[in-house]
């Protein structure tokens, strides 16, 4: 146990204190507190003049037989009074001394006292305020910092949670209760706000599924899109009467017109023209024209329609 004196080499002001550690360790602790923004005359001066402007001396050291906190407090008060270090013009001490050290407030803030206890047990009157501050602090942190968790850490965390769920009945019950309280979305109800939807849309605009998602997700979405756009669900779907379909076939084959020109003539898409041919089992129109007698085969496929009826 020692009584130490800290001196500012620039202003010659002094600070008297006591510690059970070495003088250098205590000085470094003062520097650390100053950088944390703690409020006192000494800490303000450290922030203003810098660490190099201060030096520490051992004023008095108690022997092992003399060691007691009471004696140390008496000596601290005596040196503060003798050197007048609690006078703002002379020193940095803000009290008469003997009031520092391990009092009840410092013990409560120690790790040993807080270990294994919740904020609700430690601070029953300030619990909700502390909880809100922590929540806001975490949210603000992750707004500016992107947390990257490696695959190994994810697997390790997953294994810990699974083991805890399997072996701890109380945890399992509490987790299931929390899951039950989570509000479920209704069919067609989305959690995204309109602002978020606009941001997602802007980000994905002009991109294909393959550029946004992996190959499996991309194929799944393509299949869903195909199902939604099949048949009458397709906004471009045209339900052509049978006689119009026959005229389309006749124009394309017998008058030797291209699929594009036939589509323009009947105001339908090329896809619809090709679909009419596929119904008759004709996949390659040009090949079909070359290999068979178009008029006779067409009339046969149309179940009894004659050339005069078609035209």
Which residues form runs of ≥5 with pLDDT under 50? 305-311
CATH class value of the largest domain:
Alpha Beta
Strands in their spatial order, largest beta sheet: 2-1-3
Alpha-beta content class: mainly alpha
- Secondary structure: number of strands: 3
| CATH H-level superfamily title of the largest domain | GIY-YIG endonuclease
Rounded radius of gyration (Å) = 43 Å
Largest sheet: 3 strands, antiparallel
Look up the CATH topology of the largest domain.
GIY-YIG endonuclease
CATH architecture of the largest domain: 3-Layer(aba) Sandwich
Strand content: 5-15%
**Percent helix:** 55-70%
Per the principal axes of the C-alpha atoms, what is the gross shape?
elongated
Number of domains: 4
- Round the mean pLDDT to the nearest integer and report it: 78
Distance between the termini: 118 Å
Order of helices and strands: EEHHEHHHHHHHHHHHHHHHH
Supply the number of helical segments. Answer: 18
The gist of it:
The chain has helices spanning 23-35, 41-49, 69-83, 104-108, 111-114, 119-122, 127-144, 151-167, 169-181, 194-204, 209-212, 215-228, 242-253, 259-266, 270-279, 285-291, 294-301, 307-310, and strands at residues 2-8, 14-19, 54-61.
Task: Give a structural overview.
Helix 1 crosses helix 2, helix 8 crosses helix 9 and helix 14 packs across helix 15. This protein folds into four domains: 100 residues, 3-Layer(aba) Sandwich (GIY-YIG endonuclease), CATH 3.40.1440; 33 residues, no CATH class; 38 residues, no CATH class; 69 residues, no CATH class. It starts with a strand and ends with a helix. It is built from 18 helices and three strands. It is elongated, with a radius of gyration of 43 Å. The protein has a three-stranded antiparallel sheet with strand order 2-1-3. By secondary structure, the protein is mainly α. A hairpin with a 5-residue loop joins strand 1 and strand 2. The longest helix is centred in the middle third of the chain and has 18 residues.
């Amino acid at each position: 146990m020692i009584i130490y004196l800290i001196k500012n080499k620039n202003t010659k002001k002094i600070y008297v204190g006591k510690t059970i550690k070495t003088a250098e360790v205590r000085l470094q602790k003062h520097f650390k507190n100053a950088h944390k923004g703690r409020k006192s005359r000494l800490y303000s001066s450290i922030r203003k003049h810098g660490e190099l402007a201060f030096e520490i001396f051992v004023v008095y050291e108690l022997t092992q037989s003399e060691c007691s906190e009471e004696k140390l407090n008496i000596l601290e008060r005596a040196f503060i009074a003798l050197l007048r270090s609690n006078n703002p013009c002379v020193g940095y001490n803000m009290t008469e001394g003997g009031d520092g050290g391990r009092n009840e407030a410092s013990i409560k803030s120690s790790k040993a006292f807080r270990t294994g206890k919740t904020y609700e047990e430690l601070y029953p009157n300030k619990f909700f305020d502390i909880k809100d501050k922590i929540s806001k602090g975490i949210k603000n942190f992750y707004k500016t910092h992107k947390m990257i968790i490696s695959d190994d850490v994810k697997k390790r965390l997953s294994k810990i949670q699974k083991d805890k769920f399997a072996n701890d009945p109380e945890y399992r019950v509490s987790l299931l209760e929390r899951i039950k309280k989570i509000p479920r979305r209704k069919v067609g109800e989305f959690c995204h706000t309109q602002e978020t939807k606009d941001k997602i849309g802007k980000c994905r605009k002009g991109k294909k599924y393959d550029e946004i998602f992996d190959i499996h997700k991309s194929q799944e979405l393509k299949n869903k899109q195909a199902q939604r756009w099949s048949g009458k669900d397709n906004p471009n779907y045209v339900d052509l009467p049978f006689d119009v379909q026959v005229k389309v076939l006749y124009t394309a084959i017998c008058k030797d017109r291209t699929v594009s020109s036939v589509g323009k003539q009947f105001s339908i898409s090329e896809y619809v023209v090709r679909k009419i041919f596929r119904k008759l089992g004709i996949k390659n129109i040009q090949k079909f024209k070359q290999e068979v007698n178009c008029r006779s085969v067409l009339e046969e496929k149309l179940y009894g329609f004659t050339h005069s009826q078609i035209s």
